[in-house]
Design brief:
Elements (H helix, E strand, L loop, with lengths): L1 H6 L4 E5 L6 H11 L7 E5 L5 H7 L5 E4 L16 H6 L2 E6 L2 H6 L4 H13 L3 E6 L3 H5 L3 H12 L9 E5 L13 H18 L7 E5 L7 H5 L6 E4 L6 H10 L1
Parallel strand pairs: 1-2, 1-8, 2-3, 3-4, 4-5, 5-6, 6-7, 7-8
Helix pairs in contact: 2-11, 6-8, 8-9
Bound molecules: 2-phosphoglycolic acid.
The site of 2-phosphoglycolic acid has 13 residues, from strand 8.
Length: 249
């Protein structure tokens, strides 16, 4: 039964465009993606200011996501964008706790949990990112670090329908270095086990790998046990590369 459930999860390929591109670039990329394979769920996360345009340009089969959201629904929070605003623009996903948010904006696990609960209130699926730094891996404490991030970043509102986890070793993001297939398998097994202990139907929660996923390594990474998709940065900015990753899934 569990095996069957595992087999029916559609892989999710999410593109994190980060802070890249003009409005014209975003529109051209959305058009170039066309209608990708329906065997895979595809989501793109453009910069906030491009969301409205991308929303009306994308093929309806491609989901839209935000790259972050605020801890509150509205109010005097200059520069922030709330989960209801993302919902209003048609976002069904939001990336939370990306290591760049943790590193450059000082986001703590508890902040991520608050943000995630606000997204869940809107029915938005949260892609909660976890991952160790190179120093933490070298010190052999990567499992403990990721387990702590999981236990403190996932709010009580999370369930098998509204939660996706992205394992992104910090040292692999944008560096061209990827974790070895063994390291990816081991960490995804740790995350799966954690989810099984905490949540019902946890085998249907997708665990993505992220960190220098490219057209030429996607197939082998996506074949690793418990890798249910990928969170793609750099390679999601080129339609041909992103489509090749989608097709590799
Ligand atoms: P990358 O980024 O694919 O450019 O390494 C991944 C991410 O940050 O989500």
């Amino acid at each position: 039964m569990m095996y069957e459930m595992q087999m029916t999860i559609k892989k999710l390929i999410a593109g994190n465009w980060k802070m890249n591109g003009t409005l014209a670039d975003a529109k051209a990329l959305a058009i170039a993606l066309g209608a990708p394979s329906d065997k895979v769920e595809v989501c793109v996360c453009p910069p906030y200011v491009h969301l409205g345009t991308v929303a009306v340009t994308l093929d309806p089969s491609v989901k839209l996501g935000g790259q972050d959201c605020a801890q509150t629904a509205n109010g005097a929070f200059t520069g922030d964008i709330s989960a209801p605003m993302l919902k209003d623009l048609g976002c069904s996903y939001v990336i939370l706790g990306h290591s760049e948010r943790r590193q450059y904006h000082g986001e703590a696990d508890k902040t991520v949990a608050h943000k995630a609960s606000k997204a869940h209130e809107q029915g938005i699926i949260t892609i909660i990112c976890v991952g160790e730094t190179e120093a933490e891996r070298n010190a052999g404490i990567h499992n403990e670090i990721v387990m702590k991030q999981l236990s403190e970043s996932i709010p009580a509102t999370a369930n098998a329908q509204n939660l996706v986890i992205a394992y992104e070793p910090v040292w692999a993001i944008g560096t061209g270095k990827t974790a070895t297939l063994d390291d990816i398998r081991d960490m995804h097994a740790v995350i799966r086990h954690f989810l099984q202990e905490k949540l019902d139907n946890s085998n249907s929660i997708r665990i993505l790998y992220g960190g220098s996923v490219k057209a030429d390594n996607a197939k082998e990474i996506l074949a690793v046990k418990d890798v249910d998709g990928a969170l793609v940065g750099g390679a999601s900015l080129k339609a041909d590369q992103f489509l090749a990753i989608i097709n590799a899934a």
